[in-house]
Amino acid sequence: MIDDCKLLMRAVDVAHRCPPSVTAFSVGALVVTADGTVLSEGWSRMNDPHDHAEEAALAALGPGWRAPPGATVYSSLEPCSVRTSRARTCTELILAAEVVRVVFAWHEPLIFVDCAGAELLRAEGVEVVEIPELAEEVRAVNRHLLIR
Fold first, then answer.
1. How far apart are CA 28 and CA 138, in angstroms?
2. Which of 54, 78, 92, 108 is catalytic?
3. Which of 25, 30, 74, 92 has the fewest CB atoms within 10 Å, i.e. is most exposed?
């Protein structure tokens, strides 16, 4: 059985690789098969200052990649549903890749945008699991944005 907490904690650990930013969250993401094999990792600003974690993790799998049955995206923060720096949101990218499950720790707070990623994914039939017990770990990675 796949351990969601363990894989989500790995995504949180990946978030520590993010170059600091005062205008964006530090987020880590994994793409994982149904049997728990990690296919890719991504983090905010991984290859470009505008990269989001889920976007980077999915892009690492190649253009037009489609998820195998039962694949999950683990993200430390709720996938974005509003974006000004790129044409597609992480929610749209997850749906385009046909990922059937998303696990995250922290709903995006109202600092930059009003995010509805979890709701939009659910509305499209994606299973969305929130593990709020790990949210404090994600807030710690983003403490620089929360203390103003």
1. 9
2. 54
3. 92
